[in-house]
Amino acid sequence: MEYQWVAYLYDGKSAKRTRVKVKTTVPGYITVEGLSSLARYKLQDVTISERLGAQPARVKLPDGSQLEIADADGFYQSLNAAAGKRDWLHWVESRWSLILMVLLVAAAIGWAAYAYGIPATARFVAYSLPRDIDRSIGEEGLGLLDGSVLRSTELSQSRQQSLRYLFADVTGAVGNDGDYQLEFRRGGTAGPNAFALPSGIVVLTDELVEIAEHDDEIAAVLAHEVGHVRNRHALRSLLQNSVVAGVIVVVTGDASFLSGIVAKIPSLLVSAAYSREFELEADSVARDYLRIKNIPLRRFADIIIRLDTASGMDPEKTSLLSTHPGAKERAQYFQ
Amino acid sequence: MTGHCGVCGLASRYACPGDSVFCAHLPPDPGSATEVDLNAEQAGYATSKPLTAQRNREYFRFHGNGAEYFRIWIVNFLLTLLTLGVYSAWAKVRKNRYIYGSTELAGSYFDYLAEPVRILRGRLLAIGLLLALFVFQSFMPLLNLGILALLSLFTPWLIVRARMFNMRYTAYRNVRFGFKPAYGEAYETLLLWGLLSVLTLGMAAPYAHFRRNSLLVNNTRFGNLHFRLAGVAGKFYFAYLVGFVMGFLLLVPLVTFVGQQANSAATGADSVTSVSLAILPVFLAIAFYFVAVKFAAALLLRITTNNTTIGGEGDSAGRHSLGSDWSLPVMLWIYLSNLVVLILSLGLLTPWAQVRILKYQLDHTWVDLAADIDEVVAVESGPVSSVGEEIGDLFDIDIGL
Questions:
Q1: What is the ipTM of this complex?
Q2: DSSP 8-state code for residue A116
Q3: Rounded Cα distance, A321 and A326, in Å
């Protein structure tokens, strides 16, 4: 074991440096020997930098000056041997076997958080918040859509009335307390579509009504949308995506090079994956409705495959970026 | 730099003067420390030699290595996960200490001195703000514009604060760097010139960029030495042109490729492959865009470095100057190959990629010392809150040069 090292002493008043000898021969003390000086400091009076890789050791002395010891390994070893300590972080960081374990544990935690932790937390938080929150999300949503994509409906009054009865039947069967409201619009570029706003408004496009071959199909789609509202998917996805964005910022805040795309790709993939989970959850509400009403399950399968085909998508495939699972995959739960 | 000791022959990071008193590898000498007389002049002690002769060129050296930094990085990552992000402040300090402490100039190493708790505080505030923004964005999309306007009003302040924080906690030879809180200049440079570069459809953008770099360089000091960037706005125009042409050249083959892909997808190729092939070009396009931007940024950094001087106010003889000679084709190769490695390793080799860039750039950067660096006098300044830096980090405001 060595007890003395060559070091540079910086006085903290100028950039001047002095070559000195640092000794740890006397336990509990550090001795600094210069050209014409000798000083001894108690270890508890100085601040020694944490050991980090092969970095020089730095010792801040009480008078503001600083020692820089480039051959740091022996210096730290002698100090730790004297104090009977171990630098835990450095100990882990210098062993590849432990690093491999760190890697595996990090991957396992990351996966568990993504698959269970974040969704469960979001569900818990969403259900502990008052329903008014849902209403305020996207309060302006329909107004925005009306101003851009959607046009007024061309359905006859009597058709609208019969669909409203159908909707009341659906909300009566699978809706919970909240107020639900059905709105008709011509979809325009949105095409045959139905969507739910968190406030309980379900929008049905004329094109979807036209493409449906049976009212039970429309009812199943409405039940799916009610499922989104009932399970508070808007709020939950908002929470989940915020957490994912936060995690990615914190983790890659580290990587300056390309942090831009490296950060955006995973968040895109993860939020799409969460969205597919929500679709399946809403599908199960549609399934409940069909079972309660003794309607053949294939009604829902029929219309979603027709919708996918109509919008030019391949019902067979689910891509990593899709917000909805492929229609074939969803339909298999409705056989 | 590793040299060899003239007495014992062992490797030593400091060039050993061959004088036994200063050899790091002497056998232990337990008794002597207590017996040395404070006032005795001892033979053999070398006096501290002035570091510089006239016009002495000192290269920066980066001693970090990818494997070592990877191990620190991955432990940082795990602890950050386990503590739900709280550790990230400590992780940042550890990471910066590694990078600064691996950077050597004339036998002394740089140091990063920020306290983790201070960073944590700034980070919590920034995340709170970010969450509030995210929620606002989702609840009231119409308010977005207002928030963006408010944010851009804050940006100059943020950039100044971030720079102050970073400089205040960077030290070399126990002397800290500093940044003057030049808010007025920051608002003029960043808001006025930013706006003008939009109004002129980008014609003024390189000049605005030059003004921004001047702001950052000219208000920086090391101890009592002030940094100065010479007027080189013309070269900034050149760098922008290069970046523009490069982005264009990279995009042409890509667009052709995407076009072909779209055709084959339309004719109904195998669905699984067509899906993955459809996503790939999108990623590649983003990636190439970033490479072009990074390349232009590297060129700008070189221009800025090569025109920066330190100290010597009113006395050009006492002026130190920075310089660099890294080659742009090599930088381009490093960026492109790093990109491939990062994608293939799912980001795991980020530390290796970072070290690679730093090593190449720093090993090709130098300072020409005109006077004795020992004469630099430390200037005291109080602690600086890290709020600005953290918010800047999170909103992806580029605070580098």
A1: 0.71
A2: I
A3: 11
